């Protein structure tokens, strides 16, 4: 692997492009040699195939960014992993953004913003963005070997698709069918139990974030509380024929916080030295591996050098 900086990498690629010799490469000893200063051979600059070092828009991980991706931004609560040889872009910010926007919209409805009560507006976003796009992001997490990210993003993508199916007005007739057989209480109880199932699943994921960062933990903690409050709102509101208002509003408030926490973690995965003037802080827990390392309680340098973390 080249030890040059990203700027040097781009400068050399741009110089080659300026001389119109970027495609004049020799494949020597298993490496592509891009021409430097219009020459080949000994003065050529070695790089790995498909590196695209001359592209100023390329996201090139060098130095600390190779070894230390953000927990939340990578959607990986475990130890740091070397991503320099990854052939896929980081899909986590896409999945987090899809989740955040859809959750934000539904939570505003649950809060009764501008007098809104029916969640019909969220159906489109739940199918397309929070559902399909997030599901795809989860599958791409599987491709890069992130089990936690794949499980979480694909599952919540499925949640939004399922929720859209339930809430589609007239289309699938789920709500009307339940109400036809057991009244409004039948739908409220059923939807409340559905949300309680997601509360249990989110709690399992929450346990896996206890050794990560405050930003990552906050996302799952507030989301778990949102599912709990919404589940209680629908179950306890069944006799009255409408969700219990106080818990519904609480669920909406926790959902808003979860949405902004998801956007924050997405930004941590997008922003780096190539596009931002600052690094997004994610606040490592003091008992996490990174927190202990900073307090000189553990030394992971050898493991990182061996690319085992």
From TrEMBL:
Q: Which UniProt keywords apply?
A: Membrane, Transmembrane, Transmembrane helix
Which species does the entry assign this protein to?
A: Neodothiora populina
Q: Where in the cell is it found?
A: Membrane
Family membership, please give it: Belongs to the acetate uptake transporter (AceTr) (TC 2.A.96) family.
The protein, known as: Acetate permease A
What membrane topology is annotated for this entry? Multi-pass membrane protein
Classify the source by domain of life.
Answer: Eukaryota
What Pfam families is this protein classified in? Gpr1_Fun34_YaaH
Write out the transmembrane intervals.
88-109, 121-140, 152-174, 186-207, 214-236, 248-267
């Amino acid at each position: 692997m080249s030890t040059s900086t990203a700027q040097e990498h781009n400068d050399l690629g741009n110089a080659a492009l300026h001389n119109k010799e970027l495609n004049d490469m020799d494949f020597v000893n298993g490496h592509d040699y891009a021409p430097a200063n219009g020459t080949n051979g000994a003065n050529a600059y070695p790089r790995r195939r498909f590196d695209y070092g001359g592209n100023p828009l390329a996201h090139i991980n060098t130095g600390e960014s190779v070894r230390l991706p953000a927990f939340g931004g990578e959607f990986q609560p475990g130890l740091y992993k070397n991503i320099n040889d990854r052939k896929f872009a980081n899909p986590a910010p896409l999945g987090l953004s899809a989740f955040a926007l859809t959750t934000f919209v539904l939570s505003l409805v649950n809060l009764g913003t501008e007098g809104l009560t029916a969640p019909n507006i969220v159906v489109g976003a739940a199918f397309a963005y929070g559902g399909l796009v997030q599901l795809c992001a989860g599958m791409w997490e599987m491709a890069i070997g992130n089990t936690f990210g794949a499980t979480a993003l694909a599952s919540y993508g499925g949640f939004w698709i399922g929720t859209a199916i339930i809430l589609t007005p007239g289309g699938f007739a789920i709500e009307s069918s339940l109400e036809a057989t057991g009244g409004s209480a039948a739908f409220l109880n059923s939807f409340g139990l559905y949300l309680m199932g997601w509360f249990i699943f989110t709690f399992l994921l929450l346990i896996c974030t206890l050794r990560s960062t405050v930003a990552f933990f906050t996302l799952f903690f507030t989301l778990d509380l949102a599912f709990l409050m919404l589940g209680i709102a629908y179950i306890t509101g069944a006799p009255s024929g409408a969700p219990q208002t106080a818990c519904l509003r609480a669920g909406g408030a926790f959902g808003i916080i979860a949405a902004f926490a998801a956007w924050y973690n997405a930004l941590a995965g997008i922003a780096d030295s190539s596009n931002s003037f600052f690094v997004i802080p994610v606040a490592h827990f003091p008992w996490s591996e990174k927190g202990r390392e900073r307090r000189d309680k553990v030394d992971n340098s050898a493991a990182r050098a061996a690319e085992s973390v």
